[in-house]
C-alpha cells in the first residue's frame, strides 16, 4: 500500500470527511428521487420517521459521550474514572492495569446497551406509533407505511444495541475504522434505495433497503471490536462493573438531561407540528430540517473527530496542545456550516423547482434565521464539549434552562409568528443562556478570553452568516417558496 494512501486510509479526519462527503453526495442522488417518486403524504411520513427515530439519543440517557471519554481516558493511561474533574498522568498508557480497566468499560457497555436497546425501542414503538398515526392515515397505502415503521424499529434495535462498539472505536481513536464502515454502509444504502425508488418501490422497500445496510455496518463494527478487544467484547455473558457505573452515572444523567432539553424539545416540536399542519406544510418543514441536520452533522466533524485526541491530551496535562487542536477544529467547523448554509439557501429551492419536486423548501428568510440560531448553538456546544473534558458535566444546567426558555418563547410566540417562532425560540434559549454560560465555563477552566479563542475562530464566519440573514430579510435572494404556496 503506498504511503500516501495509507495516511489517508488511517486518517480520522480525512476518513470522517470522506464519509460525510459521500453521505452528502449520495443524499444529492437519493433526495431528488424521494421528493419526485413519492407522493407528498409519503414524503411527510418518511421525514417524520427520521424525526421520531431522532429521539433515540434521549433514550440512550447520555451514556455514549461519557463512555467515549472513559475509553479515551483508559487509552491515555487512566486506571479509574475520577468523579469531577478527571485528569490523570498518561505515564500508565498501555499498562496492564489500564488495559484491564478498558476491558471492564467495554464489558459494562455491552451489558448496559443490550438492556437500553429493549427499553428504548419499546418506548419509541409506542410513542412513535401515536405520533405517526395521523400522517400515515393520509397516505395511499397505510399498511405499507406501517410495515416500513416495523422494519425501521428492527434495524434501530440492532444499531442501538451495538452503540457500545461505536463508543469503543471512537474513544480508542479508531475513528478512521469506524468511518470506513460508515462509508460502505452509506454507499450500499444509497445504491439500494435508489434502485428501489427507480423501480417504483414504496415506503416499505425503501425502509428495508436502508435498514439492511445499517444492520450490516453495525454488525461489522461488532465483529471488529470482538477481534480487537476480546477481553471486553468476546466474553459470552458480560458482567457490569458496578463501581464504574456508579462513577459514570452522575455525568451521564446530566448529559442525558442536557440532550433532552435541547435536541429533544426541538425534535418534539417538529413532531407536534406534524399533528397540526397539512401534508405539504409538514413535508416542507421536515425536509428542510433534515437538510439542516445534514449540515450540522457535516460541520461537527472537524471538532468531534478530535475529541478522543483532546481527551488524551487532557489526561496527559498537555493544555497548550489541546487548545491548538481545539481552535483548528472550531474554525473549520464554523466555516463548513456557514458555507453549506449559504449554498443551500441560494440553490436548493431552484433545484427542487427544476426537478418538479413534490415538496418545497421553506422560505429563505426562515432558513437563514434558523441557520443563525443553530450557529449560536454550535458555539455553545463546542465550548461545552471542550469543558466536558474535565468530566465536570454542566449540560443539564445549560440545556435545562435553555430548553425552558425555548418552550416558553415558542408557545408564547407561535400564534403571532407562525414558523418564525421556531428560530426565535431557539435563538432565545441559546443566546439567552446556553452559549454564554458554556463559554464562560470553558474560558475559566482553560484561562481563556474571547479574543484568544473565539475571536480567531467564530467572529468572521458569524459575521458572514449575519450578513446573509440581513440580506434575506431585505428580500435578497428572492425565495421561490411563495410560488409553491408553502406557508411559512
Can you describe what's shown?
The chain is mainly α. It has one domain. It has 20 helices and no strands. Helix 16 packs antiparallel against helix 20. The radius of gyration is 22 Å and the shape is globular.
Separation, N- and C-terminal Cα atoms: 54 Å
Number of helices: 20
Structural class: mainly alpha
What is the average of the pLDDT values? 80
Topology:
Blueprint: H1 3-10, H2 12-37, H3 40-53, H4 56-59, H5 63-75, H6 96-137, H7 142-161, H8 163-171, H9 175-198, H10 203-228, H11 230-233, H12 242-274, H13 279-304, H14 307-315, H15 319-354, H16 364-388, H17 395-417, H18 421-446, H19 450-457, H20 459-473
Helix pairs in contact: 2-9, 2-13, 3-6, 3-7, 3-12, 3-13, 5-6, 5-8, 5-12, 5-14, 6-7, 6-8, 6-12, 7-10, 8-10, 9-10, 12-17, 13-15, 13-16, 14-15, 15-16, 15-19, 15-20, 16-18, 16-20, 17-18
What can be said about this structure in brief?
By secondary structure, the chain is mainly α.
Q: What key attributes describe this structure?
A:
488 residues; mainly alpha; 20 helices; globular; disordered C terminus
